[in-house]
Structures are given as C-alpha cells and as structure tokens.
Amino acid sequence: MAELLWAEKYRPRSLKEIVNQEEIVKRLELFVKEKNMPHLLFAGPPGTGKTTAAHALAHDLYGEDYRMYMLELNASDERGIDVIRTKVKEFARSKLPVKIPFKIILLDEADNMTADAQQALRRLMEMYVEVTRFILIANYPSKIIEPIQSRCAVFRFVPLKKEDVIARLGWICQQEGVKCHEDALEAIYEISEGDMRRSINILQSTAALGEVTVANVYKVVGLAHPREVREMISTALKGNFLKARDMLRNLMAKYGLSGTDIVKQMHREIFGTSLNIPEQLRVEIADYIGEVQFRMVEGADDEIQLNALLARIALLGKQSLGRGRS
Fold it and tell me: What is the pTM of this model?
C-alpha cells in the first residue's frame, strides 16, 4: 500500500489542532457547542486551512464517522447545473437519524461554478436549510454571486505565519525521522509563500532525496538557487552584460526554467535583503521586471525579453554608479 502524502497524514483532525486561525476556530467551536450553524463561506489563499477547517468542523460535530453525514464535491470538476440538480439535491433532501439535525454539503473551489449552477444552488440553500448546511470554499469569493454570499457567514483565512509553518515542518521531520536544516525549512516557506499544503509536499519530496538541505529543496522544486540568481543580477549591475547573459543561459539550461520562472525569482531577489542596492534602483528594476513579465505572458520570446531585462539592469547599474561618484 502506498504511503499517504504527508499533507494528508498530518492534517489536523479537530478544530483544536488548527493553528494561526484562532479567531476562526473560536467561532467554529461555538457552532459545535450549540450543534447548529448557518451556511458558511470559507475564503482565502490556497493552503491556509479552509478545507481542513471544514473537515475538522464536521469531525467535531459528528465524530469519527463524520464522512457519512457530509457530501464533498470539488466544484472545479463538477460545477455544472446538472450536478446541483442531481447529487446535491438528492443528498440535501434526504434525512439522516443523527443527533445533529442537519447534514453538511462541502463545495470546494466553489468560485469555479458556473453562474447557472450558482443560481440553482441558491435555491437549494433556501429549500433544504432545515436539514442541510452548505460550506462553500473559494479562493476568490468575489466570483460567488451576491445572493449566495448574503446567505452565508463569511470566514476569511489569512496566510500562515512563517514561524508556524517552520515549526510544523520541523515537527513533521521529527515524526518521520528526517534530518533537516533550519535554512532549508525557511527556503521551503519562501517558495510556498505561506501555502501549508505545498510546504509539506515540498518537504516530503525533498526528504525522498535524503537530507533536507537548501540545495535539495531547490532541486526538487525545479528553481534556481537564489545565490546564483543574485550573482547574475550583481554581475549585470556591475555593467558586465555578456557575462550576466551567459549566467542566464546556464541557469535556464541547468534547471530547465521558463522565462517567467526566472523573472519571478529575480523579482524576489530584488526585494530581498541580500542585494545591497539603493532604493531608487530597486524601484526602477522592479518597474521594468513587471513590464518584461507582462510581455512574456502575452507571448513574447523569453530569451529576448530576459536579455533586454539584463541589458536594462546593466544600464541602470552604470547610471547608479555614475550618480554615486558625482
């Protein structure tokens, strides 16, 4: 039998195990205590615990067999009106002899539902409110129609704090007997941008290589080591365009990176603390990085645009050096 993904294996099973969402947990625990709740809308970035909180709430309400009383659908795959009229409607109107007087329908990625499906869902939320509660999960709540939003209590999830993510990753390493470096865990956090699910998946993939080091982390995620990106930017800033261009080509060949991958890493390094450059220069480079990224998204050639970016950085570096001397 295949080993569980660590993100699933170490998912909090109860509301008490959830961290960094204290206000949300307090409100949900009141629903458990009262054994009653309204329709809910969980909104926030990916990997912040929205689906986990929904499962933990159902677990605390119904116990270990909570899945018998909860229908879970991923609305990005099953988002048409037919699904609402069949699966959701059939489950919503059936009664179950449990101590809690309602069942739960969990619609993940509800912001991907079609407008017609949302209108049908709005009607079902009214008709079966006595026996069914809906939990809608959305990364972009603005895509949920206003009539549904007005029928739900909204919970907004925030990205997890750096210390909480690193502490959890370290704890998982202890449980799995994996040797990890603190700077590697910090690298995982920076790459995942607060997405806990992605952080754990990166950790598991890196652990498969052996020791969790910074080098192995970047090898797993297919990104260039930040040090190499900084060296390329520093070389360009010194006015050595040809050398910086060769470094860029080596990076793209070595790691198999796309132009947008390189641009995102350059953007991250420009605003990092490792590059000691004037504030005005950061602003000018960031402005041009945004322009180059837009061009590539619109279909411009990656190599030409990245060469143009390095050329602009080289020119800005020379101008900044000239201003410093004057």
Answer: 0.78
